[in-house]
């Protein structure tokens, strides 16, 4: 069985416009607190989305654990503001909401919610082949983590793990929240959903 710690990146610098914003000072503190939370766990490797906010979060976590980190494009967000040249923030949010409402809708840039979630599934299944009895950290993004969970688990199953899920699903994945999934031979088990007690 492989255990995956899916971690949303830390708080970013606001009002930087489209693109790939860095972590804010508080985001760095959150990442270091997450490293401390993971300190006594037998983690073998840290993976990260290639987006800057995730890479910087993963850097602090990996450094705190004395581990190497590797980028994996499958951990990238569903879509990133700035990927579509000239797209306003309002248009980006409208596109995002449409993807939430119709999980099969493929936007003009990025992936549908179903496609994004499937990327995380492929990542976990590949990690299982390499680390079949280990624990792995994957620093990603709130949207794609939710997309994965909605692909694999029913709302009722999600609510059993975190009772706030039905009403708060869009706001549940706070910066540096930790979701823990174990996987073995096509079987997924959700252990923790959007935990923030370490912060």
Helix content: 40-55%
Largest sheet: 6 strands, mixed
What would the principal axes of the Cα set say about the shape?
globular
Q: How widely separated are the two ends? A: 28 Å
> Radius of gyration, Cα only, in angstroms?
16 Å
Strand order of the largest sheet: 3-2-4-1-5-6
* Number of E-type strands: 6
Give the strand content.
15-25%
**Runs with pLDDT <50, length 5+?**
none
Which characteristics define this entry?
single chain, 199 residues, alpha/beta, 6-stranded mixed sheet, 7 helices
Please explain how this structure is put together.
With 199 residues, this protein is an alpha/beta fold. It has helices at residues 25-38, 52-65, 89-101, 113-130, 142-152, 155-161, 165-168, and strands spanning 2-8, 43-48, 69-71, 135-140, 178-184, 187-195. The chain has a 6-stranded mixed β-sheet with strand order 3-2-4-1-5-6, sandwiched between helices. The radius of gyration is 16 Å and the shape is globular. The two termini are 28 Å apart.
Helix and strand arrangement:
Layout: E1 2-8, H1 25-38, E2 43-48, H2 52-65, E3 69-71, H3 89-101, H4 113-130, E4 135-140, H5 142-152, H6 155-161, H7 165-168, E5 178-184, E6 187-195
Parallel strand pairs: 1-4, 2-3, 2-4
Antiparallel strand pairs: 1-5, 5-6
Quick recap of the structure?
This protein is of the alpha/beta class. It has helices at 25-38, 52-65, 89-101, 113-130, 142-152, 155-161, 165-168, and strands spanning 2-8, 43-48, 69-71, 135-140, 178-184, 187-195.
């Amino acid at each position: 069985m492989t255990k995956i710690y899916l971690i949303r990146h830390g708080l970013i610098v606001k009002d930087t416009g489209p693109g790939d914003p860095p972590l804010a000072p508080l985001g760095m503190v959150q990442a270091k607190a997450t490293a401390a939370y993971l300190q006594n766990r037998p983690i073998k490797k840290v993976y990260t989305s290639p987006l800057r906010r995730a890479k910087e979060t993963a850097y602090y976590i990996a450094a705190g654990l004395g581990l190497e980190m590797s980028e994996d494009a499958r951990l990238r967000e569903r879509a990133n503001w700035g990927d579509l040249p000239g797209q306003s923030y309002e248009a980006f949010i409208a596109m995002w909401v449409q993807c939430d409402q119709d999980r099969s809708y493929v936007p003009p840039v990025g992936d549908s919610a179903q496609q994004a979630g499937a990327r995380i599934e492929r990542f976990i299944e590949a990690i299982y082949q390499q680390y079949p009895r280990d624990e792995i950290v994957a620093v990603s993004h709130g949207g794609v983590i939710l997309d994965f969970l909605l692909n694999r688990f029913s709302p009722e199953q999600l609510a059993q793990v975190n009772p706030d899920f039905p009403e708060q699903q869009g706001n549940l994945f706070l910066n540096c929240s930790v979701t823990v999934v174990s996987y073995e031979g096509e079987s997924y088990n959700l252990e923790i959903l959007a935990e923030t007690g370490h912060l």
